[in-house]
Amino acid sequence: MIQITNMTGGYGEKPIVDDVSFTIDSGEFFGVVGPNGSGKTTLFKLMSRIIPLWKGNVFIEQKPLQYYTRKQLARKVATLPQIQQSFFSYNVYETVMMGRYAYQTGFFKQPTELDKDVVKRVLEQTGLTKMRTNPLDHLSGGERQRVYLAQALAQEPDILLLDEPTNHLDFSYQKQLLDDLKQLSLTNRLTVVSIFHDLNIASLYCDRLLLMDQGQITQIGKPEEVMKKALLERVYHSSIDVHANPTLSSPQMNLLPDYSLEKTSSILSPELLEVTEEKVVIKTTQLLKTFSSALVGGGFGWYRNFINYHVDKNFNCHSPRQLMLEKCQQWGMAEHDTVAMMTAAHLPDYAVRFSVEENVRILIVVTAGTGNAVDVVHGGNRMLNNQPGTVNTWIFIEGHLSEQAFIQGIVTATEAKTKAFSICGIKDPMTETLATGTSTDSVLIASTQKGENLEYAGPITFLGSRIGEMVYEATKEAIEHNIERMKHT
Fold first, then answer.
1. Which helix (H) or strand (E) holds 306?
2. Which domains does the chain have, with CATH numbers?
3. pLDDT band at 464; cut points 50, 70, 90
4. Is this structure's pTM higher than 0.70?
5. How much helix, strand and coil, in percent to the nearest 5, is found in the chain?
6. SS3 label, residue 88
7. Ranges for the ABC transporter domain (predicted)?
8. What is the pLDDT of residues 269-319, one digit of tens each?
9. Which contiguous run of DSSP H or E holds residue 211?
């Protein structure tokens, strides 16, 4: 365990680190973050005795740092600096063996069999065995950094101090190095203390973070306790968005620029709609933030092409997404720009609604058929299949939606669709109960993220009430078109 109490120190007459106290547990991966000039590197130099403390103490295993000899300290603590641009012409093996100096005795300090065994082990551990005879100047930056990690591990330390270890490395080498360090922390109880500039990487790998500003601790805790929007904006003096990682519990952040190159004029109107027997298309000049259940572009993303593709009601395909991607390619629409759905509904039966109220434009497009009508309460009695959606609902909004507004908007639209099915008397043919939709309906909400702030979209809010009314009317009209057409076929 490392215990730091009232640490103060720096250069000249003014302290860079001022009255800092914290503890680091054994086996912990501990990150130090903060803006340039916040005192991160000075903190490390004080911890490793490179510069003297003005005040306070550093305890390693309850023993003050100053009571360790240089060799004793080297057996406890190893350092991995930022990648070194200059180096002597040693090979990999020789460089790693230098990490054993703290254990070597005698005037000539020849390596022992134990030294050789340790070096062999860390070379294997870091994947360097095959390049053990390679000169350092023949290695890539990432490979050299692995060599220096192996050198530090050859010291067999309990604590590893890293000063921006991934600086100048591309992301694949960053990941490899940090994966190795995390594994060592988990399996060998190695205590890893590292400075990070990249908050996202720090959040992914660290058990706890220490956020510094102006030589003092601003916050210390788990990543989710430190990665707070208001806190980071105050410390970094920048507009920042903090959001959940899609696969891990570690929060992530994005910098938000204070400029916009895109025009702020209105872009939504019914004239954008292109309808043929084959597909319904809307193309916008700006990318829209979109939340959808589409085959292509599902989930959150930014898109400008929106496609609703018609297939036969008996359509059956093992890979409908791949088919949809091939169609997009035929139409010259790139996957990264496109949201695409399928429907068995007759596309000319579509319905559209458009409104402009309180500086907010809303465009709704619905295609609907009732052939696959289902009561959701009894949906488990149906076979799961890849049949195309029958009711597809598009909601376009000129405004700035919160993430909860996207989700609330989906819920509100679904309630409105179900109301339309009820009013039209559509039944599940298997149960003869009122249907709530069809078996594979799809929905999307797309927003310009400019203009009025729209935080909520529940049914009694301004946005939610408009979505509810317009989706209900459009769905009801599209169903009525479908029913009328079926009477004449």
1. strand 299-310
2. 2-255 (3.40.50.300), 272-487 (3.60.70)
3. very high
4. yes
5. 35, 30, 35
6. coil
7. 2-239
8. 999 999 999 999 999 999 999 999 999 999 999 999 999 999 887 777 778
9. strand 208-213
Residues in the chain: 489
Closest CA to 375 of 439, 419, 314, 420: 439
Output the CA torsion sign for 191, 196, 81, 212.
negative
Helices (H), 373-461: 403-423
One DSSP character per residue, 26-79 reads TT-EEEEE--TTSSHHHHHHHHTTSS--SEEEEEETTEEGGGS-HHHHHHHEEE
What SS3 state is found at 157?
Answer: coil
CA dist 47 and 58 (Å) reads 7
Report the distance separating Cα 153 and Cα 155, nearest Å: 5
Tokens of 342: 């399928």
**pLDDT category, 383, cuts 50, 70, 90?**
low
Neighbouring CB atoms inside 10 A of 9's CB total 21
**Residue 391 to residue 370: CA distance in whole angstroms:** 8
Q: What is the dihedral of CA 59, 61, 63, 67, to 10 degrees?
A: -90
Does the pLDDT value for residue 262 go beyond 70?
no
Contact present, 315 and 387 (Cβ < 8 Å): yes
> What token pair was written down for 98?
């230098």
- Burial class (CB within 10 angstroms; exposed 0-12, middle 13-18, buried 19+) of 47: buried
Q: How far apart are CA 272 and CA 281, in angstroms?
A: 8
